[in-house]
């Protein structure tokens, strides 16, 4: 029987395990954020595995960047919607000028 090569997901798990001590040293409020970064990396594990990069940390970091860019875009769109809603409300409240002062 031949040996099988580890998958990218295996490599990502190994990276997460190597960073476990760092995670434990983080403040409690930052630990879920740390975990979320690895969730982002796992979201793109299929693409990262196809890349077959020598250093599996680089595709993980790029995957994290992609997910954060998506979140940033979502926040920007939401902000634009809120700004438009506030502007529309302000326009309604000011209304047309009265003909009889």
Top keywords for this entry?
mainly alpha, 101 residues, 0% strand, elongated, single chain
Residue share in β-strands: under 5%
- Rg from alpha-carbon coordinates: 23 Å
Number of self-contained structural domains: 1
Report the span from N to C terminus: 94 Å
What's the overall average pLDDT, rounded? 92
Number of DSSP E strands: 0
Oligomer: single chain
What is the H/E order? HHHHH
Q: Helix share of residues?
A: over 70%
SS-based class: mainly alpha
User: In this structure, how is the largest beta sheet organized?
Assistant: none
- Helix run count: 5
Looking at the structure, what is the overall shape?
Answer: elongated
Low-confidence segments, ≥5 residues, pLDDT <50? Answer: none
Domain DUF8156: 1-95
Coiled coil: 65-92
Protein name: DUF8156 domain-containing protein
Organism: Halorubrum distributum JCM 9100
Q: Can you walk me through this structure?
A:
The chain is mainly alpha-helical and 101 residues long. The chain has one domain. Helix content is 74%, strand content 0%. The protein has helices spanning 8-18, 20-25, 31-43, 45-51, 57-94. Helix 3 packs across helix 5. It is elongated. Residues 65-92 form a coiled coil. It comes from Halorubrum distributum JCM 9100. InterPro entries: DUF8156 (IPR058469). This is DUF8156 domain-containing protein.
Blueprint (SSEs and pairs):
Layout: H1 8-18, H2 20-25, H3 31-43, H4 45-51, H5 57-94
Short description:
The chain has one domain (8-92). It is elongated and about 85 Å long. The longest helix has 38 residues, at 57-94.
